[in-house]
Every structure is written in structure tokens, then in C-alpha cells.
Design brief:
Serine Threonine Protein Phosphatase 5, Tetratricopeptide repeat, two-stranded antiparallel ribbon, 369 residues, mainly alpha, 3 domains
Length: 369
């Protein structure tokens, strides 16, 4: 016959098993409601999503996962104050979703017109989590919004340093450099973005900005005077001035019968910058005919000029330039040009469809280099 203590032990074990099963049942029900809510959110049925989340919270009142999904849904619903409320709950819980919660809170503050407060929040959080690219990217968005382009540039460089595959950082960096009048770095960033994301609506606009800058800004005035606009200051102050000069003069030679004169101007300017220079630039006589050939010729010229030897130790010469300069010398340059222009060019899109193996080889090459 079992003693009282033995009976009590058996009862407690049974009770524990019962409550574990009961708790697991609650967790399963809450997870089911959560998944249904996420499905409604993805379908932009935000009110239905919130109802599911509220039902799930009744089963697990302090779930940071549910709180995060509610914060995200309220943000997408443009109820920014409530989004901050639920973001704070996630932040206090110190759960795995804490970074995402900070992003929602910072973005909500910005949307409420509290951009400086949002900047202060992101700057503080980045000190704790410097290896999170989304924090750097969202800080850059705020800097860009208030016209702090140099700070936006630095934040985007940090984001790319953490995650080189983050397409939005390359895209935004392209626009920031464009707004700063820095044509060459702008084109580098747009090229890399288009390699990563060639077929979206954003790609169409990015390609337009890229091609516009590739085509140059050289004008012919009265008495055959040539005006060449070089962004970012004089040649001496602009680390990309010589490259931009070559690009502009080459474009001018294609539309004006001034080949000899342009070669002389170009070589004179390059000698001013480098008195030891002995190599002369010669402008090719043969001009490409089709839109695709023109774009490839311009791209090859641009990439060929990105020789990063003895240049500054920054993202332009350490990350972008080596990739593009080596790509120009490879067998994949034609594929690259078709790949990044497919959203804006039907012929390029068709070429990509018919040359999937070449595209795959390009991607493998980029990954290795």
C-alpha cells in the first residue's frame, strides 16, 4: 500500500504533466492565430490581422513575437503612436526581435515629424548594435530627409560594409551621390544595385539615372567652344575628376566632329593633374550603332577607368572599383550590361531569357570577385 508521500508525489507529477499539456495547447492555439494574423497582414487586411493578434495575446499575454507583429501592422496601418507602444513592449522584453522593434519605433518617430528624435534613437542603438545594417540604413534615410547628405553617405557606407548585398543601401547611395554632384561614385552605386536588383520598378528609375550620367554633360557653344561640366569641384579637388573628364570628352567626340581637338584638350588636362604622365588618350573612331552597343561601350569605358591603384582606402576604391575594373577585362562584361538593363530595354530582357547559362556564370564570377 502506497504511503501518503508517494501518493502526493504521483499526484503532483500528474498535475505537472496536465499543465504542461494545457500550456502546450495554449501555445499551439496562439501560434495558429499568429500565423493567421500574419497572412491577413501580408494581404493588407490589417484590421483582421490585429483581431487575430489580440486573440493570441489572450492566450500568451506577454509574447514579444505577437507584440512585434502588432507593432508592424500598426505601422503599416499608419497608426504610428500605437506602433511605438508595441515596439516599446518588444524592446523591454529584450527578445530576438529587438532590432526590428527599434527600426519600427525610429521610423514611426520620423513619420510623426520627430525626425531628430528618430536620429538620436538610431545613433544610440547603433552604439549597442553596430553590426546591424538596417539601423545604419534607416539612420541614413533620416539624414537624407533633413539634407545631411554627407552623414547619409557615411551611414550607407556602414550599412554596405556590414551587408554588401543590401540592395536599398546601394540604391540610396546612388541617389545621395547624385544629389551631391558626384557623378562617378553615383554610377558605381547604381551599377551594383542594378546587378543585385535588375527587374523592379526601382531598377527602371535607377537605370535612367545611370544612363543619363553615362551619356555625359558636354556641350558645344559658339565658335566651337567646348563646355565640360565636372562635378564635385575642380580636377585637383575631385578624386574622380580625371575619370569624369575622360567620360565627358569621349561622349562629346561621338556627337561632334572634334576628335583631334578633344584629344588635345583631354591630354593637356590630364598632364596638369599628373606631370609624369606619358601615355596619351586616343578617342576611338568606330562608334557603336545600337542602343545596347552604346550602353556596353560606355560601361566598358567607365569600368576601364576605375583603376584603383594608389587611390584612397574607401568604399569606392576598395569595394566598387576593383569589381568593375576586373569585370571590364573579363568575358562577362557583355552579360553584365544586358543583365542590368533588362528592365528598361526589351532587347536586353529577351537576351537574358535566351542566355541563362551566361547569366549564371556572371553571378558566380561576381561572387568570387
Amino acid at each position: 500500500m502506497k504511503s501518503f508521500s508517494q501518493k502526493l508525489f504521483i499526484f503532483l507529477v500528474f498535475l505537472g504533466v496536465y499543465f504542461i499539456g494545457f500550456s502546450n495547447s495554449f501555445a499551439q492555439d496562439a501560434n495558429q492565430l499568429l500565423q493567421e494574423g500574419i497572412a491577413f497582414h501580408d494581404a493588407r487586411k490589417y484590421d483582421k490581422a490585429l483581431k487575430k493578434y489580440e486573440q493570441a495575446l489572450k492566450l500568451i499575454p506577454n509574447s514579444p513575437v505577437i507584440h512585434y507583429e502588432m507593432a508592424l501592422t500598426y505601422f503599416d496601418k499608419k497608426n504610428y503612436k500605437t506602433a511605438i507602444k508595441y515596439s516599446d513592449k518588444v524592446i523591454k522584453s529584450k527578445s530576438q526581435s529587438i532590432i526590428s522593434a527599434y527600426v519600427i519605433k525610429g521610423s514611426s518617430l520620423d513619420m510623426l515629424g520627430k525626425t531628430q528624435k528618430s536620429i538620436k534613437l538610431f545613433e544610440g542603438v547603433i552604439k549597442k548594435y553596430p553590426e546591424n545594417y538596417l539601423l545604419h540604413y534607416n539612420l541614413a534615410l533620416n539624414y537624407y530627409k533633413i539634407g545631411e547628405l554627407k552623414k547619409a553617405e557615411q551611414s550607407l557606407m556602414s550599412a554596405i560594409g556590414v551587408n554588401p548585398e543590401h540592395t536599398s543601401s546601394h540604391l540610396m547611395l546612388g541617389y545621395v551621390e547624385f544629389d551631391m554632384g558626384r557623378k562617378i561614385p553615383s554610377m558605381m552605386a547604381f551599377n551594383y544595385f542594378l546587378f543585385l536588383e535588375p527587374t523592379s520598378q526601382r531598377s527602371d528609375r535607377a537605370f535612367e539615372f545611370l544612363n543619363k550620367q553615362l551619356l555625359g554633360s558636354t556641350k558645344k557653344g559658339e565658335n566651337n567652344e567646348i563646355t565640360i561640366n565636372i562635378g564635385g569641384g575642380s580636377l585637383g579637388d575631385n578624386e574622380f575628376g580625371a575619370i569624369e573628364l575622360v567620360m565627358s570628352i569621349t561622349q562629346a567626340s561621338k556627337s561632334m566632329d572634334l576628335k583631334k581637338e578633344l584629344e588635345e584638350v583631354l591630354n593637356e588636362e590630364l598632364e596638369k593633374e599628373d606631370s609624369q604622365r606619358t601615355e596619351k588618350v586616343v578617342i576611338m573612331d568606330e562608334t557603336p550603332k545600337t542602343e545596347e552597343e552604346i550602353f556596353e561601350a560606355n560601361t566598358k569605358l567607365f569600368f576601364s577607368l576605375l583603376d584603383g591603384k594608389d587611390k584612397n582606402n574607401n568604399i569606392w576604391w576598395v569595394f566598387y572599383a576593383p569589381t568593375f575594373n576586373t569585370l571590364e577585362e573579363s568575358e562577362h562584361i557583355t552579360t553584365f550590361c544586358y543583365w542590368i538593363s533588362q528592365q528598361s530595354n526589351e532587347n536586353a530582357s529577351k537576351w537574358v531569357e535566351e542566355n541563362s547559362e551566361k547569366v549564371l556564370e556572371l553571378k558566380k564570377w561576381i561572387a568570387k570577385n
